[in-house]
Specification:
CATH topology of the largest domain: Aminopeptidase
Number of helices: 16
Distance between the termini: 40 Å
CATH class of the largest domain: Alpha Beta
Oligomer: single chain
Radius of gyration: 27 Å
Shape: elongated
Largest sheet: 15 strands, mixed
Number of domains: 2
CATH superfamily of the largest domain: Zn peptidases
């Protein structure tokens, strides 16, 4: 009884407790000086190892959304929640599951011919399912329409009838030899250069059937967009897929463009030069036998978020949401993408944190606010599980103090090499300075991790802030923090296997997340926003 009372005091006054630790990340030995830290030690490397080896086993087939392996992973997480005594919330369809209704979209048939010769998707052109609709088109002429811009300052459409036509356009916008853009009158481009969808929507409004875009960086463009073609694109089932697609659009390599233009190539190049020189639109109708046949297949599918809670004692209707995605990218042929780091590491960590908090609750030590443990599905398909959750929150978002997200914390990157005593922190100061300060304070008192905020920079080209489940919470104003240990050579490869995980490192970061979540749940005041 005395020990429980001491723990209760620690829970109520977590922000006043101090902790000094000497940590060996490989053996997870620690010397602690307060009872909350003793609970943190219940998050053990060997248990995280056990979960990761199961989740990243070949038997789960890479946990791709909609697969049997993904369902098995969800069942495994739900059993762990049940075994550890986590509660459920109203709004879940069955047990710990929040069913996420989805639509899968991919090409059933796709063919493009120029003068009777068939060209290859990904090699000669790129057509992305979500940007297109079914189309069966044959024409003997194509209209070169400059840059495809329709603006009061400059319009390629003025005086040109393109209804039911195929048009060919350049990306960007007219620019003279001195570097001045005609639309802005400065050396800075307009939105027409940045947002290609504007051109596609304008083409749609003029009745164009197909937009062909000349892509000078075709190989790099395909590398960036490949995942949108080789795997089905997935959308929330509530969305109207017709509203997702605009006018049909295909991107052509320079070589394919030359074959399309044939003898008209020189004339089109000359017209482009004239546009740039004069700032006046030019168009050219050229003869070519052009054929496109494309048919989409759309099938309904469903995934499951796995959600368990430890109910708060004083403010049960307020929440801190801890999230990690448990899906991965599945199989290619017989090869299994096990996703040990991405993101069995974050999933296993959250499972152990949830079990530890549930154990505390069983001993009478409950947080003031409810802790929600949300294992999301569909992250690899576009953050879909978390997107569904924020549209259908089990505790209202205006009652959600913060989101703490964990994705890939089991390895090290090239920057840190053999150093396992670090973690990247992303997003902590984007919405709430209080969240950022609290995280630093908890780290100083408890974890002593080397926290690297370099990926949080607005100018970071990796844009990790926008690439994991916390972003859907942050976009809706919920203070969010994302823990990550960087990309490595096995990222999204079949070699992301359990034996490469630093289990002690993973447990150490998991303990930090536990301490932070506990502090958030027991904070007296809401976070500033």
């Amino acid at each position: 009884m005395t020990f429980v009372l001491v723990l209760w005091a620690a829970a109520l006054h977590a922000q006043q407790t101090f902790f000094s630790a000497v940590v060996d990340p490989d053996t997870t030995r620690e010397r602690t000086s307060d009872s909350l830290s003793q609970f943190g030690l219940h998050i053990r490397a060997e248990e995280i190892r056990r979960h990761i080896y199961h989740l990243a086993s070949d038997s789960l087939e890479g946990r791709e959304l909609g697969s049997a392996g993904n369902a098995l992973a969800g069942d495994y997480i739900a059993r762990h929640f049940a075994d550890r005594g986590l509660e459920t919330l109203p709004g879940l369809d069955s047990g710990y599951f929040q069913h996420v209704r989805l639509r899968w979209m991919y090409w059933d048939k796709l063919q493009l011919k120029i003068n009777g010769v068939a060209y290859k998707q990904l090699w000669d052109y790129l057509s992305i399912p979500s940007e297109n609709a079914d189309l069966d088109l044959r024409t003997s002429e194509v209209v070169f329409l400059g840059y495809g811009i329709d603006d009061e300052r400059y319009s390629d459409y003025r005086g040109v009838n393109v209804r039911d036509k195929v048009i060919l356009i350049y990306k960007g916008e007219p620019r003279n030899k001195s570097g001045r853009y005609w639309l802005t009158g400065t050396d800075s481009s307009s939105a027409w250069s940045v947002d290609l969808s504007r051109k596609v929507e304008v083409a749609r409004s003029h009745g164009v059937r197909l937009v062909l875009v000349i892509e000078d960086r075709f190989k790099q463009f395909v590398d960036e967009k490949r995942s949108l073609v080789i795997s089905p694109q997935v959308f929330l089932g509530a969305e109207d897929t017709d509203s997702i697609r605009g006018t049909n659009v295909a991107y052509l390599s320079s070589t394919t463009t030359a074959m399309l233009l044939g003898k008209s190539q020189r004339k089109v190049i000359a017209k482009r030069k004239k546009i740039n020189r004069s700032g006046k639109p030019q168009h050219h109708v050229f003869a070519v036998e052009f054929e496109v046949q494309q048919k989409l297949r759309i099938r309904k599918e469903s995934g499951r978020n796995v959600i368990g809670i430890v109910r708060g004692q004083l403010y049960p209707d307020e929440a801190v949401v801890l999230s990690a995605h448990y899906d991965h990218i599945g199989m290619r042929g017989r090869e299994v993408f096990n996703g040990a780091d991405d993101n069995a590491s974050g999933t296993a960590s959250l499972m152990e944190i949830a079990g530890t908090v549930a154990e505390m609750a069983a001993q009478g030590v409950r947080p003031k606010r409810t802790l929600v443990f949300a294992l999301m599905t569909g992250e690899e398909k576009g953050l879909l599980g978390s997107l569904y959750y924020v549209h259908n929150p089990l505790i209202p978002l205006n009652k959600t103090m913060a989101n703490v997200n964990v994705d890939m914390i089991g390895r090290t990157d090239d920057k840190y090499g053999a150093d396992t005593q670090y973690v990247y922190v992303i997003g902590s100061d984007r919405i709430s300075p209080d969240l950022h300060a609290l995280n630093l304070d908890i780290n100083q008192r408890y974890s002593r991790l080397r926290q690297d905020h370099s990926y949080n920079a607005e100018s970071d080209p990796n844009r990790f802030y926008y690439r994991s489940d916390h972003y859907n919470f942050a976009e809706r104003g919920v203070p969010s923090i994302f823990f990550f240990s960087g990309v490595h050579e096995d990222y999204h490869r079949i070699t992301d296997d359990p034996e490469k995980i630093h289990f002690g490192k993973t447990a150490w970061i998991a303990r930090h997340i536990f301490y932070l979540a506990w502090a958030l749940a027991n904070r007296e005041e809401p976070l500033s926003r």
